[in-house]
Design a protein that fits this description.
Layout lengths: L1 E3 L2 E7 L3 E4 L4 E4 L6 H7 L8 H15 L4 E4 L12 H14 L3 E4 L15 E3 L2 E3 L3 E3 L11 E4 L4 E6 L5 E5 L1 E4 L2 E3 L10 E2 L7 E6 L2 E4 L2 H4 L1
Parallel strand pairs: 4-5, 5-6, 6-7, 9-10, 10-14, 11-15
Antiparallel strand pairs: 1-2, 2-3, 3-4, 8-9, 11-12, 13-14, 13-16, 16-17
Amino acid sequence: MYPLPHAPFLRLLPEGACFQSDSATLIVADVHLGKSAAFRAKGLPVPEGDSARDLGRLLELAGKHQAHHLVIAGDLFHSSAGMTPELEAAIGDFIVRLGIPVTLVAGNHDLKIPNLPVALRSVPYLDLGHDFRVVHDPEHARGGGLHIAGHWHPVVKIPDGKRTSLRLPCFLLRQNTLVLPAFGSFTGGAVLDASPDDRVFVALREQVVELPPALVR
């Protein structure tokens, strides 16, 4: 776990999540459950299994850190077309097995789904201790304190030769907003257009490290 210097109770996890240690709150963003089912509904032969795999990863991560609260910083779901009976049943089983409160900070994809599972608490934003606020879109970060967001699916592109590069999901700290990488395994990402004061963190060999500015400029 990597502690942010100005937020010592917040740890960045190599699995692409963050953890508020004193309240045992696990925070992830952009899981996009049901995305492969939505593509299959349009006739594309996309393999199944990403939603089950991602729910399993969440269960494992919450158990590993003995989380007391799971917060999704938006886009837990992908679309109405992906909300199959199988996914609804899997979500119900996941919440029972998880055994802790789950709060969804509704993202733009979640807002398009007419009936979210009743076991989910859905809110427009969530205030945590130490002046932390969880939002979905970084553009909605307002005022002081640290904001935790998703939505951008940030990826950093690191050159490793004249014509080759390495693409890695990353955490982006921009001013007072920490943007989490997408947690879902079928989400894609957007390469950063880094600003001079940005700080970028990636997982390398199961450890989170801060990249030197020269690698992301």
